[in-house]
Write a structure and sequence with these properties.
The complex is a heterodimer of chains A (111) and B (491).
Chain A (H helix, E strand, L loop, with lengths): L1 H19 L3 H23 L20 H32 L13
Helix pairs in contact in A: 1-2, 2-3
Chain B lengths: L4 H16 L5 H27 L2 E4 L10 E4 L1 H26 L6 H18 L3 H19 L5 H32 L4 H7 L5 H19 L7 H8 L2 H27 L4 H23 L4 H22 L2 H31 L5 H4 L7 H15 L5 H15 L3 H25 L15 H16 L9 H13 L1 H9 L2
Antiparallel strand pairs in B: 1-2
Helix pairs in contact in B: 1-2, 1-4, 2-3, 3-4, 3-10, 3-13, 3-18, 3-19, 4-5, 4-10, 5-6, 5-10, 6-8, 6-9, 7-20, 8-10, 9-10, 9-12, 10-12, 10-13, 11-12, 11-17, 12-13, 12-16, 12-17, 13-15, 13-16, 13-18, 13-19, 15-17, 15-18, 16-17
The chains are: A mainly alpha (111), B mainly alpha (491).
């Protein structure tokens, strides 16, 4: 149980960073932390103590880890790589336009 | 067996464009238009086919628990028709509009990826697959919002991407909890297991998905990204985002999850009614304050999504019909109004209502079609917006939700108020402005006129006789959860 709580704390750390940091790069990093916590969460669901990988299991009723969430996490890692690359590209372009990474100074659009 | 084509054609075309087109965009335009037209035709064929028998396609021929399935019932086909209809006009509009920004094929490639993503979301019967296609659509949306290469666009795109990733993370966590609770990712199988599952878990999941997909649909507490993103994007993309993307990714998925999969208890009905009412009223008041046309239209989108959410919350068949019809109508008139804004921006060179003045004489086609769009978004009779709003209000009264009905009527009046401002200052003002930009080309006019005609023409869907063959099957497919489960799982 404690491990799920820790995973949730990781999520909250990421969310806190996204909501409070002013630096574009720190926002991107916090977003990545948040996404990692989601991935960790999926892996934790599948984890079983003393179990083996599905392909290594032997016998009639082997104790094995559910491989599906791991496949899902692989997909979602790829997606997150894409999102991070996209955000970094945008951050670079924003830096070229405004000469700053500070979001309080990047304010041409309002509410 | 036509289902994979909805994803194969746009994906293939998107990557073929990058291969065959050199520096010019001629081939890209031809290929994009051909693929969208063919998709529109097969989605219409699919809708006619889905009226009698719905289609399920299992990828690679595996059976249900192991495969990713695609499901096409009439609701899906209805959404596909909306997507491709708006996409086709948007492409025709883009040809001239995007050429004045740049002559690159990249726009068309991204555009087709957006279509592929949305088609995937609408067609899929697997919750993780839905997440993946949603990300494909969002990727291209982020890139397209920033396409114009101005600083505000990057800012809006960054904001949109951050908000989009937060909601995607929430949805991914929701998918994880779904899998741990139901041991399956197929929507129909989840739906069949919901009654035996702990209600607390299911309610928790419903909450996560309301927030996750509410962010995509921009219901009011989650709307902050929409006015920036939709007003900064190039006009044809604004109309795609406002007209289709928030519906395919937000409204469609919410309807699918809450009607076909998890079911909607009374408490969530009330939640949707409250969120919808807040969206209608707050977004209308925010829209009245705007002087930038595209921001005004973006806030108006939030308010119209509020109408749809309100109708979903009421849950009766009549209300669902109102919601579905409003999805179609909003796509048409909001697409049209964004084209008008784009045309004005291109010809007059401003989006500020104060600087626009008497445009009606300079741009007769634009101002006439914008008047039709205004009348139909404000819900005046014979235009389509009137009938869908009438259905929603009638359904609210019938279901005894008097407060919702009053809010819907008030929202309708407020809509008229801010669109009168739009017309009064934007098109029928006092001074005649000096046009600085290029003339409006034939393609742009065609797109506007087509949608203006459709604004009137889609009203016939409500006539008894036609209604039974178009809207009623869609509503039946949404409401009958058992049919959806039986369709996918068989038996």
């Amino acid at each position: 149980m404690i491990i799920y709580v820790l995973c949730f704390v990781l999520f909250l750390v990421g969310l806190y960073g996204v909501l409070t940091k002013r630096d574009l790069i720190k926002i991107i990093l916090s977003l990545s932390i948040m996404e990692y916590s989601a991935n960790l969460f999926l892996i934790l669901f599948a984890y079983k103590k003393d179990a083996v990988f599905a392909i290594l299991s032997k016998g009639e009723n082997p104790v094995m880890v559910d491989p599906l969430p791991q496949a899902l996490v692989l997909t979602s890692i790829v997606i997150e790589l894409g999102i991070t690359a996209m955000l970094v590209a945008l951050a670079i372009r924003l830096y070229q336009k405004y000469n700053t990474f500070d979001i309080t100074k990047i304010r041409r659009l309002s509410g | 067996m036509i289902l994979p084509y909805f994803i194969v054609i746009p994906l293939l075309a998107a990557f073929l464009i990058s291969l065959i087109s050199g520096k010019k965009d001629n081939w890209a335009i031809i290929l994009a238009i051909i693929s969208i037209i063919s998709l529109l035709i097969i989605s219409i064929v699919g809708f006619i086919h889905a009226l009698d028998n719905n289609v399920v396609y299992n990828l690679s021929g595996w059976d249900i628990p192991y495969t990713i399935c695609m499901v096409m019932d009439s609701f899906t086909a209805f959404m596909l028709i909306i997507i491709h209809l708006i996409a086709l006009t948007s492409l025709v509009f883009s040809v001239a509009y995007i050429r004045h920004l740049s002559r690159s094929w990249k726009y068309y490639s991204l555009f087709l990826l957006l279509i592929a993503g949305m088609n995937g979301v609408v067609l899929t019967g697997d919750i993780f697959n839905l997440f993946v296609f949603m990300e494909i659509a969002l990727f291209s949306a982020y890139a397209l919002v920033a396409y114009g290469n101005r600083s505000e666009e990057f800012e809006a795109s960054f904001k949109y991407a951050v908000m989009g990733s937060i909601s995607s993370t929430l949805i991914l966590i929701g998918v994880g909890i779904t899998y741990s609770a139901f041991s399956t990712l197929t929507l129909a199988k989840i739906a069949s297991q919901v009654p035996e599952t702990n209600p607390a878990v299911v309610n928790w999941l419903r909450c996560i998905f309301v927030v996750g997909f509410g962010l995509k649909a921009a219901i009011i507490p989650f709307h902050a990204w929409l006015p920036d993103a939709h007003s900064s994007a190039p006009a044809p993309i604004s109309s795609m985002l406002s007209g289709v993307l928030i519906k395919a990714l937000g409204v469609y998925v919410i309807i699918r999850l809450f009607f076909s999969v998890f079911g909607m208890p009374v408490a969530f009905g009330i939640l949707f009614k409250v969120l919808g009412s807040i969206s209608i009223l707050v977004a209308s008041f925010l829209a009245i304050n705007q002087w930038d046309i595209k921001r005004l239209l973006a806030y108006s989108s939030i308010s119209q999504i509020g109408f749809i959410m309100l109708a979903i919350g009421i849950q009766t068949p009549l209300a669902v019909m109102g919601a579905v019809f409003h999805v179609l109508n909003h796509a048409i008139f909001k697409g049209l109004l964004f084209y008008n804004a784009g045309a004005v921006e291109m010809y007059i060179g401003t989006r500020d209502l104060k600087k626009m003045g008497r445009i009606s004489r300079l741009m007769p086609v634009t101002s006439t079609t914008s008047m039709i769009g205004t009348l139909s978004v404000s819900g005046l009779p014979i235009f389509n917006g009137f009938f869908s709003k009438l259905l929603i209000i009638l359904a609210a009264i019938q279901a005894g939700a008097t407060v919702s009905a009053i809010i819907a009527v008030a929202g309708s009046v407020l809509t008229l108020a801010y669109f009168l401002k739009f017309q009064r200052y934007g098109f029928l003002g006092n001074e005649e402005p000096q046009p600085t930009g290029e003339k409006i080309s034939l393609g742009m006019k065609t797109a506007m006129v087509t949608l203006a005609i459709l604004c009137v023409l889609t009203s016939i869907l409500i006539i008894p006789g036609i209604k039974e063959n178009t809207l009623t099957p869609v509503v039946n497919d949404i409401i009958n959860q058992a049919d959806y489960i039986r369709l996918v799982l068989g038996g």
